Amino acid sequence: MNIATAAVIVTSPDRNFVTLKLTTDDGLVGWGDATLNGRELSVASYLTDHVVPLLIGRDAHRIEDTWQFLYRSAYWRRGPVTMAAIAAVDVALWDLKAKAAGMPLYQLLGGASRNGLMAYGHASGRDQEELFDSIRLRLDQGFRSIRVQTSIPGIDAVYGVRAPAGDEPTRYEPAQRSAQPMEEDWDTRAYLRHIPTVFEAVRNEFGPELPLLHDVHHRLTPIQAARLGKDLEPYDLFWMEDCTPAENQDALRLVRSHTTTPLAIGEVFNTIWDYQTLIKDQLIDYVRSAVTHTGGITAMRKLLDYAAQYQIKSGIHGPTDISPVGMAAGLHLDLAIHNFGIQEYMQHGDLTNEVFRQTFTFTKGYLHPGNEPGLGVELDEEAATKYPYKPAYLPYNRLKDGTVHDW
Ligand SMILES: [Mg+2]
């Protein structure tokens, strides 16, 4: 089973996606997600110019060897572009191996450790009424765990809150199609005052059982994050996510020493090394990496097995910039590992679902990757050609005085 052709497909149905297609000499097709939100063409070039020529003629069964070859032979290690490219190759090779075996991928990873994967949905609102409506809508859709984000009085535009009325009520897409990133604003003191009152109101309305999550999105200093974690303790959060920009892993030590609110981090990380201190010193509770941004199934399995030794669980990143191929890769891994925690599920739009034919299911709050051989996702190349790439970028933040701030 040698690789005969490798092609990179860039398509933009609801948003931009980069997909790697590997075809073997016996005609099997494997798919890998190479999407890096806002930097899509960099990964497409990395693959097309530097990786595709290396893949032709390689034995598609040799997944570990190919991973090590791509990681070590480039000399330059790590980084989001490199690791997204390696992940795309790795996931496509696992798709091929599982198709060759005639099994869903999770069977090759050890088989199912559970019947389904608890998923959390996103709820948001510009005020309490909108937020409560949004939570009720998610509950009606079957979600049994909810991420809560709200507007903050005094801040005009904030991460995680849907666009003003007129848009579809459940859709939130942070990356905007434009030539430059949109500007949002930020006020930490206003945020820290407001968020505990939101969770108090949500608990009073929806009761103590519902698992609630919140994404701080890297915007606090360690001592501010410590305070927020303490202030949210009465509302029993499932997790507080990305409370600081965690290039400095020791920041989490300070947060941890002040609060029992569980901590999740890592959607912008791309290797096991980014977690070394966080895991060994038990500074976090959930690993937020995406399979697609962290070197694929091969690397994520090692990372999550390392985390398992410390009772740290998975919380695989599942926003809309992870394509259905990348989502499926995460779901197969979720189903197989023992230390599954929860899976984010942001739900793709109709155009994306037209381009990517999927077999994973969402039933009564639980995701399942399905039982088709491989990943269970196929890209419709004819449909993909209808949606050419359009530049789109994530927003960025400025403080009131104009200083650029973490978004
Ligand atoms: Mg996040």
Automatic annotation (TrEMBL):
Protein keywords: Lyase
Species for this entry: Kribbella italica
Protein name, UniProt field: Mannonate dehydratase
Broadest EC class assigned to this enzyme: lyase
Coiled coil regions in record: none
PANTHER family the UniProt entry points to: D-GALACTONATE DEHYDRATASE-RELATED, STARVATION-SENSING PROTEIN RSPA
Enzyme nomenclature, EC number: 4.2.1.8
UniProt xrefs under InterPro entries: D-mannonate_dehydratase-like, DgoD-like, Enolase-like_C_sf, Enolase-like_N, Enolase_C-like, Mandel_Rmase/mucon_lact_enz_CS, Mandelate_racemase_C, Mandelate_racemase_N_dom
